[in-house]
Amino acid sequence: MSETAYSDGYWESAGGLKLHYRDYPGRSDHPAVLCIPALIRNCRDFDALARDLSGEWRVLALDLRGRGESDYAKDPASYTPLYYAEDIETLLDGEGIPRVVAIGTSLGGIVTMLLALRNADRLAGAAINDIGPVIEPAGLARLRDYVGQGRSFPTWMHAARALSEIYGLAHPDHAIQDWLAMAKRLMVVGGNGRIVFDYDMRIGDVFNAPHAKEVPEMWPAWQALAGRPLLALRGETSDLLSSETFARMGEAIPEAELVTIADTGHAPSLDEPEARAAIARLLAKVA
Question: What CATH superfamily is the domain 7-135+215-286?
Fold first, then answer.
């Protein structure tokens, strides 16, 4: 598709924040596809997928509060899945969108499960990418090593090499051009001309708070997704979603399709051929 494949949309949260999404046009007789990003990611992560789906499917790719072009929260304590879910419900109500197919990566998958727990009828289908009802402590510890650190870089190449150090084990086949592309999704040029991460560093304060380290299990939220087309993806070497939890997810909802992406950790990019094929199968069940 062209470089102008989407329009920028904005909505206001219940607390008055101006929040941003990309709106890729598609058929009105399908549910919209709603793309919800990971903890420190933004709508740009879904651009390739959204361009491929657009035309057949309307795709809304979100910047959660505190990320990308969305306002930073006045109170950083609102950087929690409950607030994100409420923000999304406000968007869907305002746009008159009754049902969506949610695609959520990591934190976005948690928010998807929470949306189902709050109102399962709103979801026509869901894809949960590399997250589950039990989150592994080792993976959380790794995230806490870098979230909210506020690092900056003099050039895009420096930024790319830093990402290769952070995520290299998860994506062993990435070449430098892949890391450069990831850097331009995750980062922006700051006011001083240096390359910076495109999120509110106070997200790290909330994520690293003592109470945040007590992660509840979310089996009821996963179970709330039953009864609709459902896909769960896992990176083969993921340190956030164990193979044991992944298997239990399939046992809890036998009709869910479980797909493991080989030679990949947390989290699959959704550009992998196996991930794209699985998403196509999911949407074929919805259409």
Answer: Alpha/Beta hydrolase fold, catalytic domain (3.40.50.1820)
Indicate yes or no: pTM above 0.90: yes
Q: For residue range 125-175, what is the model confidence (pLDDT) as tens digits? A: 999 999 999 999 999 999 988 899 889 999 999 999 999 999 999 999 999
CB–CB of 125/146 below 8 Å? no
Q: Which of 114, 96, 261, 263 is nearest to 174 (CA)?
A: 263
Q: What is the DSSP letter of 73?
A: P
Q: What are the phi and psi torsion angles at 173 (to 5°)?
A: -90, 0
- Around Cβ 119, how many Cβ atoms within 10 Å? 12
Angle between helices 107-119 and 81-95 (to 10 degrees): 60
* Helical (H) or strand (E) element with 220: helix 219-223
CB–CB of 127/108 below 8 Å? Answer: no
Give the rounded percent of residues in the chain with a pLDDT score beyond 90: 91
For residue range 176-185, what is the model confidence (pLDDT) as tens digits? 999 999 999 9
Give phi and psi for 202, each to the nearest 5.
-70, -15
- pLDDT for residue 1: 44
* Both structure tokens of 243: 């193979």
pLDDT digits (tens, 9 = 90+) for 236-253: 999 999 999 999 999 999
Residue type, 247: A
- Alpha-carbon 191 to chain mean position: 27
What are the structural domain ranges in the chain? 7-135+215-286
